[in-house]
Amino acid sequence: MGKNQEKNALVREARKRQILTATLSVYVRFGYHGTDMDIVANEAQLAKGLIYYYYKTKKDLFIELYSWMFEEGYTFSNRLLTNENGRNPIEQLMYYVYGIFGANKDNPRMMQFFIRVPFDAYAVFGPDKWKEGASKSDIHRKALSSMIENGISQEMIPATDPSRAANSFWSVFVANLFEYSKLIQGSNTIDQADDSIALKEIVQFCFQGLGIEYSLWNACLEKVIAENS
To answer: Are the C-beta atoms of 111 and 177 separated by less than 8 Å?
Structure first.
């Protein structure tokens, strides 16, 4: 490939990323049905014709957005899981949610995206592929289910259905995290001590719902905070 071809390829990729980033910002605010190419173009500060140059339809644009975000989600989840190797299941759970908590504070759009996907997968992927598409947004719940199952097998978590427990854990965690995100939006006064208190409030019902003793999960929380302070 010549230098001009390489340069053009880089320009195309940068432009597509600019469009996808703008689409993500619009999508988390308005959802699939509330997003149109005019709004995306305005958000990206590009001509609408250029958006259509890269994506012939809104559905084409969203299929690529979903593919991009699913890959981002898998990479992020796998990185968290790799960093937790060698820890016991309770510590793994705590480190995992701590990682998501931090990532959400830096970029809340990722969490907001995965919350929206199940509601819009049918419109984006159609009647034949929507279940497959929706399942790909289930990255974090599946990871939690695996950790909970390990905790049950090691008798650190009371016997229960891992999948249902993970669903409850994730639902409570997301709801509390979402409320915290709204609280800190636009605030410059949240420091690390505030974060520690907020994280404890966010996760306490999650871990108590699994029947894990306060002393056990709180010790794990203090450990993760100390290691990252």
So the answer is: yes
Contact 51, 44 (CB under 8 A): yes
DSSP designation for 136: T
Chain-centre distance for alpha carbon 217: 23
In one-letter notation, the amino acid at residue 224 is: V
Q: Mind listing the pLDDT tens digit for each residue in 119-167?
A: 999 999 988 888 887 788 888 899 999 999 999 999 999 999 999 999 9
| Residue 213 falls in which region: left (phi positive, over 0), alpha (psi -120 to 50) or beta | beta
Residue 104 and residue 176 in contact, taking contact as beta carbons nearer than 8 Å: no
- pLDDT exceeding 90 applies to what percent of the chain? 59
- Nearest alpha-carbon partner for 111 in 72, 83, 161: 72
Q: What ranges in the chain are assigned the alpha helix state H?
A: 3-30, 37-44, 48-54, 58-83, 89-106, 108-125, 130-135, 139-153, 162-184, 192-209, 214-227
Please answer whether residues 131 and 181 qualify as being in contact, where contact means their C-beta atoms are separated by less than 8 angstroms.
Answer: no
Torsion sign (Cα): 29, 190, 225, 202: negative
pLDDT digits (tens, 9 = 90+) for 57-95: 999 999 999 999 999 999 999 988 887 778 899 999 999
pTM tops 0.85:
no
The CA distance from 159 to 151, in Å, is 9
Whole-angstrom Cα distance, residue 107 to residue 114? 13
What pLDDT, on a 0 to 100 scale, did the predictor assign at position 186?
54
DSSP, collapsed to helix, strand or coil, labels residue 138 as: coil
